[in-house]
Amino acid sequence: MIHARKSVQIVGRNTIKTEELVEDLGAGATAAAPGDALEGRIVILAISHDAAKKVVSDYSSQLAGKVVVHISNTVDPANFDRLTVPSGTSGAEEVADLLPDDVPVVKAFNTCFAGPREKGAVGSVPLDVFIAGDSEEAKARLSAVVAASGLRPIDSGPLRRARELEAFMLVVMGLQVNPEHPRFNWDTALKILP
After folding, report:
1. Mean pLDDT of the chain, nearest integer
2. How many CB atoms lie within 10 A of CB 186?
């Protein structure tokens, strides 16, 4: 993902992969190991939902004053036919429930698959980044980074809208793996046209 010329700290379990990513990102990117102090004001959980729950539990004491961004889709990868969270909630809300009330959680980037997210576009069309959260300040802070990266932030409402964002990706991912739709692939993205 484009890092908007901001400093980025990558915390990874695999030292070699983490260093390779830092090298690819270039100036402003640094590597850290699990347990190291978190830098920065925005923490993007670029991991699976189950791993995200563990990380926020492990790092909860370091998250005060930071915005936590949940990007995972809670779609069951075994069949792409169901969500892995109970009805009436979302992965982002489950993460928020694990944190103190003063640590804002936002849902973002889950509608952008890895390839397009890395490029920042599909073809020449910049990605839309849907952002849901209960803190207007947290959404504004993340929106500024998204916009500085050349992407279009879209405020999607309160954190409970993460339910619909995750559920919609159940439909999209189901299309991606369906052999009857060969033109859908993991290099697609959602776009709201004016």
Report:
1. 91
2. 11
